[in-house]
Structure formats: structure tokens, C-alpha cells
Design a protein that fits this description.
The protein has 186 residues and is mainly β. The protein has no helices and 14 strands.
Length: 186
Amino acid sequence: MRGPDAIALALALALLPAGARARDASVVLRWKPVADAVEYELEIGADRELRQVVLSERVATPGYRWRELPDARRWWRVRGVDARGRPGRWSEVKALEPVLRPPEPRAPPDGRVVRGGAEIELECAPSPPADAYELEIATDPSFAAIVERRSGREPRFRVALEAGAYRWRIRGSVDGQTTPWSFARS
């Protein structure tokens, strides 16, 4: 079996076709086949050295569909295993970037002043593959004093607030998993 340079690694997020359910989203890992390999050993870890392995699998093909949607950076490597069960050398460790990222606030601009009682639209860029969003509005930077909480299918909400100073943030969710909160705007 050849060395680690025999395996070229690739990564893709399996995007959802129109009408698909959010739980169908996954991370797809692929690599070049290794001569004499009858299966592959794959590891995904929470650290670059893979001391904290979160997934260890053996697969028959040079690819794997991971049903997790990581919200933090993960690391992965793979190696071929021959017909006698002898493993080759591990591939280079590659980073797997977070899939569930916080939505990015779009509007209104930070610090916007609005008349008390006037309706305003708070909007973030969508966070694929999120299929639901949650808004929080508070009177303090730590979000201990929440005055409004809403949920919806889109990353935008129309609200009317009394006169005062407020901070807002939005997070997305998919199949029970949530993104981190967006950075707060005032």
C-alpha cells in the first residue's frame, strides 16, 4: 500500500434539493482510492492531533456521508486497509470547517434609531442548512433582560418596540441543532 500521499482528500456539504427535509443535510467526505485497499478507516476528531476522536468508522468505498452538521471546527484523516487487515499510513489531517454558522445580521445597520412604536424589520443572511430561526431582543448587552423572543421559518422578523435602547440577535436551527447566536446589534 502506498504512503499518505496516495490519498487525496475532498469535502463537500450535501446541499438540500428543493423540497428536501433539513435532516437530509450532511457532510460528504471523499478521497482517491488506494491500490490494494479493500476498505478504509476514517477518523474525525475535535482536535488537530485526533486525540479526541468523535467518529471512527470503517467503510468499503472511498467516501463517507457524515450525518452530523458540526458547529465547530473538526479534523479528519483516512487510511486504506488491505485484504489481510493491514492498515496503511494515515493521510494528512485536514480541517473540517463548521457547517452550522451563526446568521450574519443585514438590517438595520447597527445603532439605527427608530421611533418608539414604529415597526422595524430585523434581518440576517440565511444560514444554510438552517430551516428555522429564533430572534431575541433585550435591553442589555448580556441578553439577561429579554423583552421579545420570536421563532419563524425566515431569518427576518418585523417588530414594534417602545422607545428605548435595545440589542438583538438571531440564531438558526436544523433538526434540533442550533447555530451559535449572531453577533448582537443595537
